[in-house]
Amino acid sequence: MKKLVGVGVFVRREPNDYVEQLRTSAMSVGTYSIPAGGLDDQAPHHEDEIYVVTTGRATLVTPGGTEAVGPGDVLFVPAGEEHRFTDVTEDLALLVFFAPPYSGR
C-alpha cells in the first residue's frame, strides 16, 4: 500500500505543470496543472488516459466533440486520440492515470 500525498493539487508553474506521483509496471499517476487563461500544448499519447478534475473549469476538445469540465468530472481519452483543454477559466488541476505508464512527450 502507498498513500499519495499532494496528488491533484494545483501547482502554478508556467506554462503548465505535470508531475508524476506514482509509477508501476502497469500504470502511472500524476497531476497536470494549467493556469487560468493558459494553453494546453500536449500532443496525443501512446497510453490510455483517465482525467479526474480536482479543481478548476475548462473545456476538453477532441475530434468527437467538446465537453465542459469541472471538479469531480472523470474523462477517458483513448491512446492516440488528439485532445486539449481550452477555455481554462479557473486554475485547472487534473489527476491523470495512464495505462500503460506514461512514456513521455
Summed up, what is this model?
It comes from Kribbella capetownensis. The chain has strands at residues 17-23, 28-34, 48-62, 65-69, 74-77, 84-99.
Structure description:
The protein starts with 16 loop residues before the first strand and ends in a 6-residue tail after the last strand. By secondary structure, the protein is mostly beta strands. Strand 3 and strand 4 form a beta hairpin. The protein has strands at 17-23, 28-34, 48-62, 65-69, 74-77, 84-99. Strands 1, 2, 3, 4, 5 and 6 form a six-stranded antiparallel β-sheet that branches.
CATH architecture: Sandwich
In DSSP terms (H or I, runs of 4 or more residues), the helix count works out at 0
Overall SS class: mainly beta
Write the element-wise H/E pattern from the N-terminal end onward. Answer: EEEEEE
Q: What is the domain tally? A: 1
Major sheet description: 6 strands, antiparallel
Low-confidence stretches: none
Indicate the CATH topology. Jelly Rolls
CATH superfamily: Jelly Rolls
Q: Alpha-carbon distance between the termini?
A: 29 Å
Could you say which overall geometry the principal axes of the C-alpha atoms support?
A: globular
Number of strands: 6
Percent in helix:
under 10%
